[in-house]
Amino acid sequence: MSGHSKWASIKRKKAVTDSKRGKVFSRLVKEISVAARMGGSDPEGNPRLRTAIDKAKEVNMPLDNIKRAVQKGAGELGGAMYEEIIYEGYGPGGIAILIEAMTDNKNRTVAEIRYALTKQGGTLGESGCVAWMFSKKGCLLIDKKAVTEDALMSEALEAGVDDLKNDPDDDMFELITTAEDMPAVKAHLEKAAIPVSSAEITMIPGSYITVDNPTAQKMMRIIDALDELEDVQNVHVNFEMPDEELS
User: Fold this and answer.
1) Which residue from 94, 185, 84, 204 is spatially nearest to 142, judged by alpha carbons?
2) Cβ–Cβ under 8 Å, residues 41 and 71
3) Higher pLDDT, 246 or 133
4) Which of 135, 182, 215, 227 has its CA 20 to 30 A from that of 89?
5) Cα distance between residue 231 and residue 114, in whole Å
6) Of 61, 79, 49, which Cα lies nearest the Cα of 23?
7) Tens digit of pLDDT for each residue in 74-83?
8) All residues at 6 or more sequence positions from 206 whose CB lies less than 8 Å from its CB, including other chains
């Protein structure tokens, strides 16, 4: 069973909770602003911005909020300017943790992340200590009710998808692409009348370690603590969820 697929399913459930807490809007505003600043305010010529705007629309962010975030990133509006930073560390059992953050105050962010990690039994590592284990990839989710696996496989191969994952315990097919190809693959599937439930750029480990239930529970507490931090955008790990239910 794919560790990434099972972890992706858990992340989706967590995203729903985050949405209810309003955190997802804040994170997307930062992503849109940084994407616009780095690649320009035109989503047609800026794939990262287009992806961020698509995700904002998926969670029903008001168009005015999206527009202001783009204008802020392009320098048309004032306000805090965010910087992307990657933090790396370890959880229980040697689990690798890669943390993507956006902040206007690096001292505050590193202190909060270090505290969240050490309080739950993790450690903050040096730059480069675990990043080499992860690769930037595109990840697209397709509702299994929308298409058969054979039909999706046919279109995926034509679009140049790297991998198709079908976890029997998940209600979504998961397609893995290169980060650069993800927007084109999404467009190809939609042109073929295959709706894409979600499309994002993520970090996928080259291999996974298997942990027992108590270790997984400790790791989930670390992830929850990190997710509570305003400056944390994404948390990536390299462990497989145990088959038994987490409590």
Assistant:
1) 185
2) yes
3) 133
4) 182
5) 13
6) 61
7) 888 777 788 8
8) 133, 134, 135
Amino acid at 43: P
pLDDT category at 5 given cuts 50, 70, 90 is very low
Q: What would the pLDDT profile of 221-236 be if each residue is shown by its tens digit?
A: 999 899 889 899 999 9
Distance CA 223, CA 94 (A): 15
Identify which of 72, 86, 79, 83 has the alpha carbon closest to the alpha carbon of residue 105.
Answer: 83
Q: How far is residue 235's CA from residue 224's CA, in Å, rounded to a whole number?
A: 10
Q: Which of 2, 219, 237 is nearest to 120 (CA)?
A: 219
Distance in angstroms (rounded) separating the CA atoms of residues 125 and 98: 10
Which of 213, 221, 4 has its CA nearest to residue 120?
A: 221
Mean pLDDT (the chain) is: 86
Distance CA 29, CA 52 (A): 9
pTM attached to this predicted model: 0.81
* Length of the chain counted residue by residue: 247
